[in-house]
Give the backbone structure.
Amino acid sequence: MQPFAQRITHGDAMRKRAIDVLQINMGKYCNQACIHSHVEAGPNRKEMMTRETVEAILRFLERSAIPTVDITGGAPELNPHFDDLVESCGRLQSHVMDRCNLTVFFEPGKDYLPEFFRQHRVELICSLPCYTEENVDRQRGNGTFDLSIRALQLLNLLGYGVPGTGLQLHLVYNPLGAHLPPPQDRLEQDYQRILLERYGIVFNRLYCLANMPITRFEKYLKRRGEYEPYMALLEAHFNAATLERVMCRTLLSVGWDGSVYDCDFNQMLELPLRDRGGKPLKIGELSTTMAEGQAILVGNHCYACTAGAGSSCGGALLS
């Protein structure tokens, strides 16, 4: 395999631009343990963002002009400081996105979350890797599909995904195995039709994400003898046109311990941003001007974001 860094021939093509999204990983604790999870999240993980780190993030947001906060995990809602973070971001006039696994609504003491989201007009990005029960439960655990459908119906009742409400509800698809996602627009139409016909569910957009060949999914592929073929597939479909739109250009990722990264994937590979002395940067030490113009750390995992139509936390990069 040709190293990804050698495929970049545009000089400064992989440098940070002005940051418009601060993505915050609140920890690896989750009520699910999905096969494809690059975070390796699960019920037994103990890593959780502290109140002190949340406060450092809020101070950073207050002195920066970053308009959007993208909250993720694990299941970020299971962090005891999640509600305070959302409310504080609202007071700072930041637009808040939450990456929700839907089943968290049915965890003890979390049934208030849908109304909380509506009250704070949080944009929801919700995992539903297929519109069939068999595929979802294979990837995410038995019973997950039924709970996800119930959660989506509840969100629709509150106005999420309903035209004219401004309450944004997006779904996330990712392949069951070592495959590239299909064309996003076409699959979105299938999702919209089938979910409406079968369950009366409406939503705004479908985001198609390629599975990232790192951590838990990498181990899964290697057990099945599929890692090398999958990497070859990603490399063969490298699309240089995606380089202008990859999310790491305009995003900063903050880990549960306050360390700062180019993206969530680099975070899981422990590839942090560093100061001039080589010391990993913490959010409390960072300014947006320190990041802008800096070279982005790349590796062969970047083939997953740049294959075919491209893949990011906002779905396909090219139509």
